Structure formats: C-alpha cells, structure tokens
Amino acid sequence: MYFFNSLFCFPHMIFFFLSWIASSLFKPLLVVSLIGVLTSSPSSALKKGQMLVSTIQYLLFCKEKKWKKPKEDPDSFFETVPTGKQPKIQRKTIIFVRHGESTWNDTFNKGDRPVVSFILNFIPNLVKAIFMEWFFFVTGESNESWFYDSALSEKGIKQALGIQGFLKTNPKFATPKEQKMLRLLVGDKSVPAQLVSSNLRRAISTMLIGFSDRLQHNYSRDNVLLLAELQEISFNPDALSITAPREQVIPPWTDPKSIHPFYEKGRVDPGMNTGNKRVDGNGLERLQAFCKTAFDDIGKDNIIAAGHSLWFKAFFQTYLPHTTDHVAKKKKLVNGGMCGFTLERILVDEATKQWAYRIDPTSLVVFHGGF
C-alpha cells in the first residue's frame, strides 16, 4: 500500500518542485530581461514584440490551408484541339530541394527518433528552446529566433552537407533524363539553371551549403533569388519570415562560417522577395504565383528551388494529372531530398491571358533522398 501511495504522489511532487524552481527563478530572470532590454537597442525589443504579435495573428486568423482544390484536371487543358489551333506548350525543368531539419523540428517533431526517446527528451528540449529564445531577447539579437523562421539544426546542416556530397558523386547508372538534371545541378554551362529559394532561412542555408561548390566555381553566373511564393504552407511561427521585403539576409546563428561570404558578397538576391505571406492569403495563391514567376520572370529554362515539404506536396497534388498515382501526392519529400520534373504551361484564354499548368508525369525523377 505504501508503494502505491508513493507512486500516486510522485507526479504531484514533481509538479511541486518544478513550480518552486520556476517561481524562484522568475524574479531574477525578469530583472535580467529588463536590464538586457534597457542596455540593448530598443528597436530589437520592438522587433521581438512584433514577431510575437505576428505569431499570434497567424495562429488565430491565418487561412493558409483554406482553399478549394481546383476541380479541373490539369490534363484537360492539354488535350488535342483541331489542327492549326493547338496553342504552343511552354516548358521549364524544375528541381525541388527540401531544406534540412530546423531547430523547430528539433523541438517539436519526432523525425527518425524512437518514440520513447522523443517523449523523454521533449521537456528538456523545450526548456532549451525557450532558454535560447530568451537569450536572443535579452542580448538584442532581433534577427535570431529558435521558433520564428527557425534556422537549420545540427542535423539539418548534416543533411545539407549530404546534398553537397551527393553532387560530388557521379552515378554510374543514371538515365539520360537523370544525367541532364545532375548536370544542371552542378552548374554545367550546357544546361544553365537559376537557383531560387524560399525566403525562410532554413531553405536559404540549405541552398548555400548544398550548392556551395557550384557557387564558388561559378561566381559570375550564379546567385540565389529569394521568392516569397515558395514560403511554407503552415500557420506555425517557423513558417514566418524574419527577413523584411527586399532586405539582405543576415546569416543565422547556426550557419557554418564557410558560407558567410555568400551573404556578404551578394550571392543571396532579395530583389524579388516581397516579404511575409498575407494573413488572408492561402497556399494555392503562392503555388500559382510561383508558376507564373517561373515562366514570366525567370529567363532560364531550368530552375532549382529550395523549399518546404507541405508546399511541395501541395504543388504535386495540384499540378499532377488526377489519374497519376504518385507517392509525391501522398508523402513529403525527405529533408535534404531532391526531385525534378517538367512543368508545362499553355494559354487557355487569350483575351484574359489565363494560363494552365501541368507537371508532365513521365518527367518526374527522384534522385536523392526520396519520399
């Protein structure tokens, strides 16, 4: 009986001691926080406050995932019409690169960790994350956050380095289609490609780390365009951009020093970054905007895009033909994974300049990581 009574009381004892520790630390932490705010730039504290307000605003009012799936099958727009009236089909080769895991993932997502390990370490990891957020606040690091626009974690950096390592290999059994995509990934002059990235830091860092050899060798020809159209489809704070519209990106605290020169020498181009997604907008609008930007605003026929799992999944669900049963519609591209395909465009209404888009299902190639 004594054993069971002790077992019953144990959770209450833990709660009591945690409450006592929290109350003991509250005043010292409050004093240190006030001193930090007063001695650092007031603008830093203001920006942190704005980030908190934005987080609450998006959590409560964001309509990110509230859109009606288009009823029209993408294939229906590309059916044969009478001879002489067939509109010209335009094509772009697109390669999606998913970012490495972030500090947000490190705290809240199980990933490939055993369930028991994730549960046992959740509270310690959460405490660590909150401490880091507090540290950034009191030290005036207004462009840093563990939760908001989260940076790459240690594991995420390794996954980005995995991309770099993959691009150094020469697969012996690659098909001609795969060989072409591999050539444009490494920066072969015969297949020039534009590098683009989401305006979220983990995607930018993944691009700079994974393609660092290409960026170093092709200094005069390569830069990374930031596109708000690629911003993740989520209402969580890690999917909100910390970088203001058209402002230079400040290297996140987790980035390796080796890629800092890319930021400093203007290899990250924010000229097309329109800033954070709208609260009243939705993911479908950004999918459509990316398609339009790919054809109208990017001159090269090949595009390498660093982005996010839910955005990529929604893109495949929207633009793959309805009859195509592909894993890309059902599962996420793994962190550090890459896949390529041909995106097609056809003019369906000349008066209103309405375009339709389709992924050619025969062109889809998964060549690193998978789903």
Measure the end-to-end span: 52 Å
Q: How large is the share of residues in beta strands? A: 5-15%
**What's the gyration radius in Å?**
23 Å
> Quick one: overall form?
globular
Class computed from helices, strands and strand pairing: alpha/beta
What series of H and E elements makes up the topology? HHEHHHHEHHEHEHEHEEE
In helices, the fraction of residues equals 40-55%
What is the tally of beta strands? 8
Oligomer state of the chains in this structure: single chain
User: What is the overall number of helices?
Assistant: 11
- Low-confidence regions: none
The major pleated sheet works out as: 8 strands, mixed
pLDDT average, as an integer?
87
Walkthrough of the structure:
The structure is a single chain. It is built from 11 helices and 8 strands. It is an alpha/beta fold. The longest helix has 38 residues, at 2-39. The protein is globular. The termini are far apart.
Name its key features.
alpha/beta; eight-stranded mixed β-sheet; 13% strand; 8 strands; 11 helices; 371 residues
Care to give the gist of this entry?
With 371 residues, the chain is an alpha/beta fold.
Detail the topology: elements first, then pairings:
Elements: H1 2-39, H2 42-61, E1 90-98, H3 103-108, H4 115-138, H5 154-167, H6 176-186, E2 193-198, H7 201-210, H8 212-217, E3 224-227, H9 260-264, E4 268-269, H10 283-296, E5 302-307, H11 309-319, E6 338-349, E7 354-359, E8 365-368
Parallel strand pairs: 1-5, 2-3, 2-5, 3-4
Antiparallel strand pairs: 1-6, 6-7, 6-8
Helix pairs in contact: 5-7
